[in-house]
Amino acid sequence: MAGRRTTGAPGVTRENLADAALRLLEREGPKGLSMRKVAAEVGVQAASLYWHVRNKEELLDLAADALWEGYAPLPEGRTVTAEAWRDCLAVASHRLRAHLLAHANAVRVLAGRFAPGPRSLGPMEEILALLRGVGFGPADTADAAYTLLTWVQGFVLHEAVPMSAAEEHGATPGEAAAEARERLAALPAERYPHLVELAGELSGPGMDSRFAFGLARLLDGLEALRAR
Amino acid sequence: MAGRRTTGAPGVTRENLADAALRLLEREGPKGLSMRKVAAEVGVQAASLYWHVRNKEELLDLAADALWEGYAPLPEGRTVTAEAWRDCLAVASHRLRAHLLAHANAVRVLAGRFAPGPRSLGPMEEILALLRGVGFGPADTADAAYTLLTWVQGFVLHEAVPMSAAEEHGATPGEAAAEARERLAALPAERYPHLVELAGELSGPGMDSRFAFGLARLLDGLEALRAR
DNA sequence: TCCGCTGTCTAACGTTGTTAGGGGAGAGGT
DNA sequence: ACCTCTCCCCTAACAACGTTAGACAGCGGA
Predict the structure, then answer these.
(1) Is A216–B221 a contact, with Cβ atoms under 8 angstroms apart?
(2) For B8, left (φ over 0), alpha (ψ -120 to 50), or beta?
(3) Based on the domain organization, do B54 and B127 belong to the same domain?
(4) pLDDT tens profile B39-74
(5) Would residue A91 count as lying in a domain?
(6) In terms of residue numbers, what domain contains B134?
(7) Does the residue B2 lie in any domain?
(8) Which nucleotides of strand C lie within 7 A of protein CB?
(9) Are A180 and B177 in contact (CB under 8 A)?
(10) Which pLDDT band holds residue A73 (cuts at 50, 70, 90)?
């Protein structure tokens, strides 16, 4: 038969459907995700999916949760010292970004869909634990974790969408960045003086350092709060 | 005839198509946006759209740009004093959030699509000007503006998606928040101890104060950088 | 008058999400 | 042995979608 699953437990389960959707998303891009293709991926006809899943919306929720499969919690046991909390939060943020960036196509489709499943709450729990563990109060912990997570996701969304779009168009990241820079520099300078001036700074491929900058500012802000 | 445009200059232009798409998005939600309906909204058959627009993707880019029509630049003229830059950045951020939140349905569809048009760069230019005006260097300005914008968009995305989804489902924001809290509280406490403990703090409808918190931390971080 | 351009139309293509209804395989009871 | 029930998949079809091809009406200029 044509399309058969390749990994994991055999049956047609909700879990396998979510995995298949994710696999398809990553392989064929956002437009390549249809019920029929997901069905084919698990070796079944499209209508059969509706036995396991209410509709496509629910499948996407499942996929959004399955995205976090294998997102390991921080190296267990070692409690976070009061001095090292900054570094711990930093590596947690970097891991978060890396994980999302590794599924750029999925991020593009599933953005804003994180919450329905328990697995997608893993990162939140991890960060909450970190903050509470070093003395932040309940309210501050909740707000700080929320700030950090929304920022990382907003950042990665901006990073992943052009990446995934460029790939779909058959361009390298470097080309895409260069084109973005040119578009900025070509703007009317009297209306957008600073954008034109900073075109080079804004559209470089140096996303790593940009992420580090934002993270440092955010952690500085949290440190100031903690110092009170 | 059935559907006719109601405002603006008469012809079928790219601009009017973008407006119609935006209007439709807000009125009927994300699934209500089809080429046929946009065409009907401007009083024309679907195929005619392709004279003005390459495809739906391009229409959405246009709409993402048109979202920023009427986003007035800050009260002109008055230069920002070195003491007031914090407040200025804060009101700029609040205006940004309010503007996005006023088009929650559109945000849900157009997320990550901000960049193609010049109008959507207005907020960026505004913030760049502010930062440069108070002494930040070129690189810091670019990174800081990027951080701020990505955070606001990530925040609003998380805020707008459940809002728009709940409305589609016919629920009030309060009900949606209560349901979210219950879902968090019902999680396995041994796997997600902090999420369960902080369910109340995390899922309250107090989005305004949560936004203010994140903004304050970010501005604190920027202030620390500037003080060096 | 004829030409070419602009902007719309009708008709159709293939694909999508989704529903209705049928059927077979296996378990369990009698 | 038979019946029945539940589970799971099937085929067939629907309306709606994005998109293309090609024809036609109105227009300005040669």
Answers:
(1) yes
(2) left
(3) no
(4) 999 999 999 999 999 999 999 999 999 999 988 766
(5) yes
(6) 85-227
(7) no
(8) 7-12, 15-21
(9) no
(10) low
